[in-house]
From TrEMBL:
It holds the Pfam family HxlR. Residues 1-82, 144-242 form the HTH hxlR-type domain. The keyword Transcription regulation applies. Keywords: DNA-binding, Transcription, Transcription regulation. This is Transcriptional regulator. It comes from Thalassotalea profundi. It comes from the Bacteria.
């Protein structure tokens, strides 16, 4: 929510609190984490009295494709009346744009079915860390959120681990349990939530009707570009000395896969300094 506010132009502490409706200690804690992670800098904007604002570093600005990928997902799957909508203008072509996830080489829209992958030298296993913190299940007022539905999914560590398994073809309960090391009650709970959200469906395993497997719906498949943008971000900012963990190929063109969020009108990459926006509240469309 803080990142989203930043994209909407918020820079100061009080504005973050107002925009996110989060409690001050929470905002303060998260801003501190973003500074510690090298994503934000605290900059003096007024000397007397001394006042600060927060500025995104290059590391943070590199989340822009992910923010656009999230917008793209919300636009496809989470249209409801009263929801906040953003209209983006691509300054370089002067058109209203709906950026979409495309392969940098061939400019085709990215879908997981067109991607082949093998593990790279830097592949590792993520430890399941259990924290005593309880998940917040307070769906906030949707008027303030552009990303409200997707954030419930990708903001949840367990849901992301589950999706990661399923995107790599691991889709039976016991197997997911094994690779994610999630406690089995949490796993069942998250799987049913993902089913309720329309991300997963259950199917009988072919030739073995006693067992079921979890499959992504179209809505679930469309999360792929968001995960991909995170993967690119990680490869750049948290690289393993051994190399990339996953080597992806775009089957349509045969090139190594690089995601680019490109303009729906001119097919050039959409970057933060080439984008302006305005906010509207949608009334119809579903
Ligand atoms: Zn391609
Ligand atoms: Zn354009």
């Amino acid at each position: 929510m803080i990142l989203e506010s930043y994209w909407l132009g918020v820079r100061r502490f009080d504005e973050f609190c107002r925009q996110t409706k989060l409690l001050k200690p929470v905002v303060s804690d998260r801003l501190k984490k973003l500074i510690d992670n090298g994503c934000f800098e605290k900059v003096v904007y007024q000397e007397k009295p001394k006042r600060f604002e927060y500025r995104g570093t290059e590391k943070f600005i590199d989340f822009f494709p992910m923010a656009l990928a999230m917008l793209y997902w919300e636009r496809q799957w989470s249209q409801k009346p009263g929801k906040l909508q953003i209209i983006l203008t691509h300054k370089s072509c002067g058109q209203q744009t709906e950026p979409f996830p495309a392969c940098k080489s061939c400019k085709e829209t990215i879908t997981p079915l067109d991607v082949s992958w093998k593990t790279g030298p830097g592949v590792g296993v993520m430890e399941a860390k259990y924290s005593p913190r309880r998940r917040q299940n307070n769906k906030t007022d949707s008027q303030t959120n552009l990303h409200d539905e997707i954030i419930q999914i990708i903001g949840d560590r367990w849901a992301m681990l589950i999706l990661r398994s399923i995107f790599t073809g691991i889709n039976q309960f016991q197997e997911i349990l094994k690779v994610t090391a999630i406690a089995s009650n949490i796993l069942s709970n998250r799987l049913s939530e993902l089913i309720d959200e329309g991300i997963l469906v259950t199917k009988e395993v072919p030739n073995d009707s006693r067992r079921i497997e979890y499959k992504l719906t179209k809505k679930g498949m469309s999360i792929y570009p968001i995960i991909l943008s995170l993967l690119h971000w990680g490869d750049k900012w948290l690289p393993s000395p051994k190399g990339a963990p996953l080597l992806l190929t775009h089957k349509l063109c045969g090139n190594p896969l690089q995601l680019q969020m490109i303009c729906s009108e001119c097919e050039k990459e959409v970057t933060p300094d080439e984008t302006s926006y305005s906010i509207v509240i949608s009334h119809s469309r579903k």
